[in-house]
């Protein structure tokens, strides 16, 4: 009888009788063994109480007691509304990533640079395109099976049947009125008080970001950004002829606000600050409320725009819904940009922007740049967001991403070499991993592709050449086994590369 | 017996017998009377031969002869593949619009100006928004009933059923591969030889135009444009901080190419020329091939970009398919921009661009600005364009627009005051009408709204204050009666305003 079978059937009466211990202990031991020898792996879901009772023909009292034993032994965890899961060994085996140091915090004036990241990114893209079959741990959206594919499809079919002219009638300036009204209601939970007219729909969050930058800067101006910084923002800055001033960010609390305060004193030419307050890409950091308040105050006092890029807020693992920077805005300093691309539907390019005191200019630029968005996607979204299905989906998505992150964290801790550091993110799907100093992320990126795995090298997250020994891993797939195996492969690769570098 | 009834039933045998003339003449006379007293109106479709034979219980020979009589009397016209229509009285009652004069052609250096059209347009938009019920003769897309609404709806439903993850899987960089391949095949008829990789999908033609301008200019640069010029282009120039140099355009042949040649000599700072070769908005002009060839040659020699904005090519009324400027391009001088917004589906924001020798830069800018387009609309388009349905739709659309234009031209000729001039457009839906000098188009615009009709005043088609006594009318609705009535109202208004202005 294999271990797997032993989990699916009840122990035979003869075996039960031969064992003098209480039945709940016998069952708990059986699961303990399964976890110990890897039949059940960290993050796996335990049977529901009901299933456990049926499978082993035991009472609720026995089932409850078995789970209590496993829980006390730190082998399984209860998760609210989700059930029990095999516990993931704490990732404390790896030290947390370094916090920005004092030298970083005291930036020297003159450090703002015109952005020139495009050729680096192009080289990376053209390299990984040569490996189309590589497992993608370098992406930034999850796979369709993490999203409510069937429900959205149904909503779209219904909308098309009900409104036959959805494809042939022109849409509304600034976007579908019903969607903008739903959005204005929904963002109350982020502490944002706006009306439908304060919402302009955009082609994804990236168009929102471009419009925000265009509204408040001229080519040659300086924009303060977090370091490390999402490479898409660096590309936008480059394409608009802007300079980036990289402000250090903490892997746990995000932008170092006091470093920004210092930079604002020494760089009077800063026209805007761009911040991802929740699950910063690539850090996964979440700004504490006190930092948010201070940041908004700083920018307001300096009279510059604070551009909030907030597409991951709803993926934060927290008891209560985090508040956006915009919640602290009293004078229109904050331009709020976000999208539904990461949280709901990567196939819909729907984002939105509130332009703060530059809202009218943002509206003009959006009209001049690309007119209104297509009606169909917006009608589907409006309908979906009106129901409780979106909230249910978000809870499920957060749960599934947490399981994936825990598995991945365990695999990283188990297989990467000494000298590797990372801080577990506060939600979402990114791991920002510091490799041993001697491992170049560019070389690692190329070697990983040869191993059939795509990662993002750290070089694209800075315009100033920082982070060459960092990589960003994402856990976008629900095929946990595959990702697990890939991470272990990457760990072995990093170990070999670190050892090789040390060999004289 | 009313005239209407007399058309639907056969003359009674007693009447036929009483009339000694041949039956085909009696029937022809009956229709002549119906046309004469307005029961049948210019542009109305005549019964098919088969319907005529059945209705009047006559032979094919009699039916054919009746139509021949009416045709010889210039009362009806045969249209290939469409049948017979009541002839529209030639609009020659009104003189053609003025051609650019010599003074216009010899532009003085230094005439390039930073564009500041936004406040003018905003004022117009906020004015007409106060009249939401006004009949819109100021729009630039036709109403959904001129487009294949049901067929596109069906295609979209099918695509969604077949590809459930259309909304939740991320799309392709540069756009859907199948669509880009269909486009590359289709544009062969425009004389454009490109592959799928040379096509980048955009959010409508306006995003394509923005990308083209961004690829070849820096803020402060000068761009040569046609005068009059589509206000959307002027808005794009303004939002990008560019200067416009307005080059005169002829109402029949478009851009005055020799005026451009002169401007290129006197303005060495021109970085790009933007031209709408087919059915220029608002002129409705179509460039002759010789002009196209010369224009491409000029730009190539000057080493500047020729940006071709070509969304109306397929609406040109011509025996053969017109060739785009890009067909004459041998060295990547021409950036080709177009969309399916005007020809197929105003509810789809799908355009595309070929960036000529700036193609890679255009691709980078598109990615940085808004990533890829949504997959759904592209999949629908690819499927629809693969079939013959698109060609059939275009033929029908051109026919219906022609009927509308003829009716509208007749109404304009019949009701506008002396001093009104216009050149019938070569297709599409725009009329560029020169009012008597003493009528201000801004005042006319406001007065027309009070009469329940929206028009576009000429002031928004120039950054240099030209065209104040011009208006653009469009014939976007299939409700011909309503449009007819509205045009007559506008004619009476213009007559009153012209008379009033002359009164001392």
UniProtKB/TrEMBL annotation, chains A, B:
Molecular-function annotations in GO: DNA binding; DNA-binding transcription factor activity; pyridoxal phosphate binding
Domain HTH gntR-type: 21-89
Transcription recorded as keyword: yes
Biased composition (Polar residues): 1-11
Key words, A-Z: DNA-binding, Pyridoxal phosphate, Transcription, Transcription regulation
Transmembrane domains' residue ranges: none
Gene3D superfamilies the UniProt entry points to: Aspartate Aminotransferase, domain 1 (3.90.1150.10), Type I PLP-dependent aspartate aminotransferase-like (Major domain) (3.40.640.10), Winged helix-like DNA-binding domain superfamily/Winged helix DNA-binding domain (1.10.10.10)
Residue ranges of the region described as Disordered: 1-20
PROSITE patterns associated with the record: HTH_GNTR (PS50949)
Pfam families named in the record: Aminotran_1_2, GntR
Ubl conjugation listed as a keyword: no
InterPro entries the record matches: Aminotransferase_I/II_large, HTH_trans_reg/aminotransferase, PyrdxlP-dep_Trfase, PyrdxlP-dep_Trfase_major, PyrdxlP-dep_Trfase_small, Tscrpt_reg_HTH_GntR, WH-like_DNA-bd_sf, WH_DNA-bd_sf
UniProt similarity note: In the C-terminal section; belongs to the class-I pyridoxal-phosphate-dependent aminotransferase family.
PANTHER family documented for this protein: HTH-TYPE TRANSCRIPTIONAL REGULATORY PROTEIN GABR (PTHR46577), TRANSCRIPTIONAL REGULATORY PROTEIN (PTHR46577:SF2)
Entry protein name: DNA-binding transcriptional MocR family regulator
Species per Swiss-Prot/TrEMBL record: Paraburkholderia bryophila
């Amino acid at each position: 009888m294999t271990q797997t079978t032993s989990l699916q059937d009840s122990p035979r009466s003869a075996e039960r009788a031969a064992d003098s211990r209480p039945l709940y202990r016998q069952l708990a031991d059986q699961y303990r063994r399964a976890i110990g020898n890897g039949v059940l792996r960290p993050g796996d879901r335990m049977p529901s109480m009901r299933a456990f009772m049926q499978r082993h023909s035991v009472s609720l009292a026995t089932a409850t007691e078995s789970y209590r034993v496993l829980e006390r032994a730190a082998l399984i965890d209860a998760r609210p509304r989700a059930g029990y899961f095999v516990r993931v060994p704490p990732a404390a085996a790896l030290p947390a990533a370094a916090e920005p140091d004092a030298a970083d915090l005291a930036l020297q004036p003159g450090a703002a640079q015109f952005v020139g990241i495009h050729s680096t990114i192009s080289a990376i893209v053209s390299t990984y395109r040569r490996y189309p079959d590589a497992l993608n741990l370098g992406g930034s959206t999850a796979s369709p099976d993490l999203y409510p594919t069937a429900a959205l499809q149904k909503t779209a079919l219904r909308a098309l049947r009900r409104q036959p002219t959805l494809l042939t009638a022109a849409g509304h300036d600034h976007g579908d009125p019903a969607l903008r009204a739903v959005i204005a209601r929904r963002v109350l939970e982020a502490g944002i008080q706006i009306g439908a007219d304060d919402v302009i729909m955009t082609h994804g969050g990236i168009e929102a970001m471009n419009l925000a930058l265009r509204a408040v800067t001229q080519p040659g101006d300086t924009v303060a950004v977090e370091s490390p910084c999402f490479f898409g923002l660096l590309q936008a800055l480059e394409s608009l002829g802007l300079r980036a001033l990289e402000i250090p960010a903490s892997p746990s609390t995000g932008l170092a606000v006091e470093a920004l305060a210092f930079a604002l004193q020494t760089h009077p030419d800063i026209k805007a600050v761009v911040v991802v307050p929740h699950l910063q890409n690539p850090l996964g950091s979440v700004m504490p409320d006190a930092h948010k308040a201070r940041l908004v105050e700083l920018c307001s006092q300096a009279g510059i725009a604070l551009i909030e890029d907030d597409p991951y807020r709803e993926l934060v693992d927290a008891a209560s819904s985090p508040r956006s920077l915009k919640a602290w805005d009293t004078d229109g300093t904050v331009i709020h940009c976000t999208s539904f691309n990461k949280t709901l539907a990567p196939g819909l390019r729907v984002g939105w922007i509130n332009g703060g005191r530059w809202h009218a200019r943002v509206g003009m630029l959006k009209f001049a740049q690309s007119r209104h968005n297509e009606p169909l996607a917006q009608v589907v979204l409006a309908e979906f967001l009106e129901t409780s299905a979106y909230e249910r989906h978000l809870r499920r998505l957060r749960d599934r991403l947490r399981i994936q992150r825990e598995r991945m964290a365990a695999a990283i801790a188990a297989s990467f070499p000494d000298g590797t550091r990372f801080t577990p993110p506060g939600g979402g799907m990114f791991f920002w991993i510091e490799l041993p100093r001697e491992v170049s992320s560019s070389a690692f990126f190329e070697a990983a592709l040869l191993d059939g795995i795509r990662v993002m090298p750290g070089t694209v997250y800075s315009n100033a050449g920082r982070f060459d020994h960092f990589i960003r891993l994402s856990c976008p797939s629900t095929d946990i086994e595959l990702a697990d195996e890939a991470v272990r492969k990457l760990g072995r690769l990093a170990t070999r590369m670190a050892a090789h570098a040390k060999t004289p």
